[in-house]
Fold this sequence. Notes:
The chain is an alpha+beta fold. The chain folds into two domains: 46-147, no CATH class; 150-185. 30% of the residues lie in helices and 18% in strands. The chain has a three-stranded antiparallel β-sheet with strand order 4-5-6, with no helix packed on it. The protein has a two-stranded antiparallel ribbon with strand order 1-2. A hairpin with a 5-residue loop joins strand 5 (94-96) and strand 6 (102-103). The chain is flat, with a radius of gyration of 24 Å. The model is unreliable at 1-9 and 11-36 (pLDDT under 50).
Amino acid sequence: MTCLSPRRTKGNEKNTKRxxxxxxxxxxxxxxxxxxxxxxxxxxxxxxxxxWRQLSQTVRFDRAGAKCEGCxxxxxxxxxxxxxxxxxxADVRCWRxxxxxxxxxxxxxxxxxxxxxxxxLACAHLDHDPGNSASxxxxxxxxxxxxxxxxxxxxxxxxxxxxxxxxIRDLYEDPRLTRERIASR
Length: 185
């Protein structure tokens, strides 16, 4: 099975049916049996169900209403925030906390601390297991809430990567090189 991909043509001239067919080339790189248009590593794609795109859309748009379930930030919108979780809700015209609750800004803030972020929702697994796609285990989160949710997992993964590199180096590195490396510290 192959996939046809269009070649780029110069100009805006109208092509005949024959020329339009000739403008396609065969591409084996785009053919995948389990295609997911999400930023998922290829080696982990088999962990996700075939209907992952539909599950993700159901959680993000039908259940969450295109808003983060952690802080309430809207999907595909630019949001003004202060960097500490507080953000301006332009629809209601009020400031919100990092949990989406209305807050008052009695003390004010420094204008230089205002930042703008483009919010994109992702569907997060609460137990960090991509095989568990029960709706109670999925949550629509913005980038900030997703990073906070995954912080412990990212710390563990960073430690595990360093541990593996050191273990492999201990197994295969020449002892003389190890002594030199330790002495140069």
